Amino acid sequence: MDDKKQTVRAVERALDILICFTDKQELGLTEIAKLVDLNKSTVHRLLASLEGKGFLIRDPITEKYRLGFRLWELSAHLVREDDPALLFLPEMEKLRDLLGETISLYVRDGRERIRIQAVESKHTIRRVAPIGVRLPLAVGASSKVLVAFSDESVMEFILQDPAWPETIDKENYVEQLKRIEQTGYATSVEEREQGTSAVAAPVFNRMGDVVAALSVSGPAARLTIEKMVEMAPAVMVAAQRMGKMVKK
Questions:
Q1: Which of 9, 21, 81, 185, by CA, is between 20 and 30 Å from 3?
Q2: Cα(133)–Cα(116) distance, rounded to whole angstroms?
Q3: What is the DSSP-derived secondary structure letter of residue 137?
Q4: Which of 93, 112, 231, 6 is nearest to 104 (CA)?
Q5: Which residues contact 166 (CB under 8 A, 6 or more apart)?
Q6: For the stretch 130-169, what's the b/e string if a residue is b when 16 or more beta carbons lie within 10 angstroms of its beta carbon?
Q7: Are residues 185 and 232 in contact, defined by beta-carbon separation less than 8 angstroms?
Q8: What DSSP character marks residue 77?
Q9: 16 CB-contact burial (10 Å; exposed 0-12 / middle 13-18 / buried 19+)
Q10: Are 186 and 231 in contact, with CB atoms under 8 Å apart?
Q11: In 20-50, which positions are buried (b, 16+ CB within 10 angstroms) versus exposed (e)?
């Protein structure tokens, strides 16, 4: 392997390490090595480089790593004008105050959806929504919204997923998507997570492309099908207002 390829591979491995912190705030050397499927000595060298550049911080007592301040410095220069996570936040807060449940915003990335923003319910028992989590597109109200209102090529791409759950019937899934197109929203009851329900609507840009899914989620005992159908118009109206904020 020539020097250029080795350098690119090292960069890819370093980025893989940073991505490990999507789900956890702190990780040890052994945990990281297992997640990126590399030996400890290689990971240790990469961690030392990332720590030296300020991308990671190592706790001297626990010897665990967490994200460093350099990432905060970089994030300060993100283009925020069209960032839906920030652009839609006030509207999400209004919807939370109106409906009383957790509000989430999802975007599609390949065969997954990512929660890019969330406003938690004020109820003691509520749906906690970690930002940055990746979820499959086979189940869940937001997943079905993101697929139902996308091009047919997207649906075919999702259906051909090698990791498609055997328990999910594809024909039934497609029929659900057709009904969602007609009603303008989707519901789910304990599809992805036991005890949790959700209702979601699409956010379209001015070109008519779906850019996100706006969802309301909470305990299934509170969010019955009847309750979610009652909430759906408010969710769709909020999603329409959000769409008008998108420049392209």
A1: 21
A2: 8
A3: S
A4: 93
A5: none
A6: eeebebbbbbbbbbbbbbbbbeeebbeebeeeeebeeeee
A7: yes
A8: T
A9: middle
A10: no
A11: ebeeeeebebeebbebbebeeeebeebbeeb
Torsion of CA 72, 77, 79, 81, to 10 degrees: 90
Contact between residue 146 and residue 213 where contact means Cβ atoms under 8 Å apart: yes
- For the chain, domains (ranges, CATH) are 3-75 (1.10.10.10), 84-245 (3.30.450.40)
> Smallest Cα–Cα separation from 176: which of 207, 157, 208, 148?
148
Q: Give residues with Cβ within 8 angstroms of 159, minimum separation 6.
A: 170, 173, 174
- What are the tokens at 129? 């929504």
Q: Tokens 């420049």 label which residue? A: 247
Separation CA 190–CA 165 (nearest Å): 15
User: How much is the CA Rg of the chain, to the nearest whole Å?
Assistant: 20
Over its length of 248 residues, how does the chain's per-residue pLDDT go in tens digits? 566 667 788 999 999 999 998 778 899 999 999 999 999 999 999 999 999 999 999 998 899 999 998 887 776 665 555 677 788 889 999 999 999 999 999 999 999 999 989 999 988 777 666 788 888 899 999 999 999 999 889 999 999 999 899 899 999 999 999 999 999 999 999 998 889 999 999 999 888 999 999 999 999 999 999 999 999 999 999 999 999 887 65
- Taken in order 33, 34, 35, 37, is the CA torsion positive or negative? positive
Within 13 A of 232's CA, how many CA atoms are on the CB side?
A: 19
